[in-house]
Structure formats: C-alpha cells, structure tokens
Design a protein that fits this description.
The structure holds two protein chains of two kinds.
Chain A (H helix, E strand, L loop, with lengths): L3 E4 L2 E4 L5 E7 L5 E8 L3 E8 L6 E2 L6 E3 L9 E3 L8 E8 L10 E2 L3 E5 L1
Parallel strand pairs in A: 2-11
Antiparallel strand pairs in A: 1-3, 3-8, 4-5, 4-9, 5-6, 7-8, 9-10, 9-11
Chain B lengths: L2 E3 L3 E5 L4 E8 L6 E6 L6 E6 L3 E5 L2 E6 L4 E6 L8 E8 L5 E3 L3 E6 L1
Parallel strand pairs in B: 2-11
Antiparallel strand pairs in B: 1-3, 3-8, 4-5, 4-9, 6-7, 7-8, 9-10, 9-11
Classes of the chains: A mainly beta, B mainly beta.
C-alpha cells in the first residue's frame, strides 16, 4: 500500500543524545516536510524539501537538521536532544503538480520523549 | 504576522449538524485545507478550497470567503466516529502551509 512510513513509532531518549527519525514515502512526491505537534500549538514546520537535493528551514528549525539524498527518504536528526524537543513528529509529502497539488499526506508520527 | 483562528473545542450531539469556523490573516492566499485528526493518529485530508463558495463531499462541506478571510467546515448527520480534531490550514504567498491549532470536536450520544 502506497504511503509514508516513519520509524521509530516512539522513543525515549536521554538529553544530549543524538537521534535520527526516519521517513520514507513511495508515492514519488517531490516535496517532503517535517512537523512537530505540541498540545495547543498545532503543527509547526521544522524543515522541508521541495525536491531531492534541496532543503529549507521552516518555523522552528533550531536543533534539527535534515537531508534529502533521494526522492523517497527524508531523515530528521536531533544532534543533541533537549527536553523541549519532546513532541510528536510527523513527516508529510506532497506533489506540486496535478489536481492533487499541495495536498500533504502524513506519516503515522513518532512520539519522542527527551528526559 | 500570520494567524489562523479556530475555536479550541466544540461539543455536538450524534445525528446533529455542526459548523467549525476558521478565520485567517496571512501574507497572500493560495488555498485553504481542512484536515481531520483522530487522537493519536496522523492528520488526514478532508477538503480543499481555493475559490469562494461551498464544496460538498458527502456529509462534509467546506465554505470559503476570500474577501472575509473566512472558512467553515460543516459536518452533517454526526456520527460518534466524527469525534476528532479538525485542522484548518492556509497556503500563503510563498506556498507555505500555515496551520491553525485545530478544533477538538466532541460528539455526545
């Protein structure tokens, strides 16, 4: 079944540790996104990529980095985790062409707790 | 700044109709989305409006007035499974998606 997968589903992490959240899509969408969702704040964009080989900063990029080596994968790395990065992380993708343009499709999310 | 306002929480009765409002102030406008998000799950696409008027899709309809910076999502014949958060999001002039905080809809029998 086509879609977006994320790993891990959940993770408890000690502060200061490095962590990579994985995201893979098989819809051949050109654009991909990482969001964090905190209670009462809605979805906030961390980083995005409009096409393979390019990335951009969103609303809350500090403490996070991304790479887009190919169309399908868009990993998010926390270089040195802090408790304020405790959140639910969603990866999403969209296709910028066709009548479905700009509609974002979301992965199941990763629940991250930093202690 | 950019802002999207939605009520935090609404309660409705099974079988009834509910209207969830969304007002926005953004730098430009290139479309408005409504998403549904059940607790502990990912947001899923419901509707997209770019022109003024009403878009109907089964029990769900979405309305847009660009001049008023206003949209609503109308849910008819409410079912218990409609209990979820409903997220409004606007595409701005830079084609960035700006998200509202969402409206938690509680359906009572």
């Amino acid at each position: 079944i086509a879609g977006i997968t994320q790993a891990p589903t959940s993770q408890i992490l000690a502060a200061g540790r490095r962590m990579t959240l994985r995201c893979t899509q098989d819809m051949r969408h050109n654009a991909m996104y990482w969001y964090r969702q905190d209670l009462g704040l809605g979805l906030r964009l961390i980083h995005y990529s409009n096409t393979a080989g390019t990335t951009g900063k969103g609303e809350v990029p500090d403490g996070y980095s991304v790479s887009r080596a190919n169309t399908d994968d868009f990993p998010l790395t926390l270089a040195s985790a802090v408790p304020s990065q405790t959140s639910v992380y969603f990866c999403a993708s969209s296709d910028s062409s066709g009548r479905d343009a700009d509609t974002q499709y979301f992965g199941p999310g990763t629940r991250l707790t930093v202690l | 700044g950019q802002n999207i306002d939605q009520p935090t929480e609404m309660t409705a009765t099974e079988g009834a109709i509910v209207q969830i409002n969304c007002t926005y102030q953004t730098s430009g406008f290139n479309g408005l989305f409504w998403y549904q998000q059940h607790a502990g799950e990912a947001p899923t696409f419901l509707s997209y409006n770019v022109l003024d008027g009403l878009e109907e899709k089964g029990r769900f309809s979405s309305f847009l007035s660009r001049s008023k910076g206003y949209s609503y999502l109308l849910l008819k014949e409410l079912q218990m499974k409609d209990s979820a958060s409903y997220l409004c999001a606007v595409i701005d002039s830079n084609y960035q998606l700006i998200w509202g905080a969402g409206t938690k809809l509680i359906i009572k029998p």
